[in-house]
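note to self: dont lose this again. the chain is below, predicted strucutre after it. 252 aa total, dont forget to put it in the shared folder this time
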Amino acid sequence: MEWTIQELATRAGITSRTLRHYDRVGLLAPSRVGANGYRYYDAGAVARLQRILLMRRLGMGLPAIAAVLAEEVDTCDGLRAHITTLEEERDRIDRQLRSVRHTLDALQAGMEPRMDVMLAGFNDHYKDEVISRWGERAFQVSNDWWHGKTLDQQRAWKQAAEDLVAAWVEAAKAGVSPTSEQAQSLAARHIRWLSQIPGTPTAEGDRECSIEMVKGLGDMYVDDPRFADMYDDAAGAAFVRDALQAYARTRM
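---
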């Protein structure tokens, strides 16, 4: 099939003048020019125009687009690359939509609009640590999971986390041993809590990586002052570390 320049311009939402300009700068030539001077475009030309319009929408200038198209050997590879780019853009927009919906929910609920607290991804404050220890995918999957929750679900999750921390602090202040049944029960609860977070080894059932993760978390609780504050003091953080690492050695 072929389309005239007017038909293609109308379908693409651009002007025939734009198509003639693309021809002049070497981006998109017509498939053929009829004896009457009319320009015709076949399916291959339309596919090329689709790619040009996609790159324009991504903010690329015409010289940059020309360079990309000139370097490509296989059109299908180029289309696959565009699919990947579009999927990433779709995911970014989806995250923005979820954030805006959360903001609206918070405002309608009459909450103080501190979106930095309510909308932060589960691991946002510890992004670098998560990526360095467990990779980009672990961060992205868990972060998307958090942003996919409703405001009520986020509140419930945070409350469960606060309850767990409070239980750790209470046990540490009571002076129980990290290897005691009480401490080991808390360690099991802590690991069940971790297993609810997509992207973590515990959620994916990877035993060896789960053991490594639990031990690494224990070390991070002690090494990072933010966690010492969370568990009341450095001694509390050390108690959590020792209990988790004992559990990882003997019960995982």
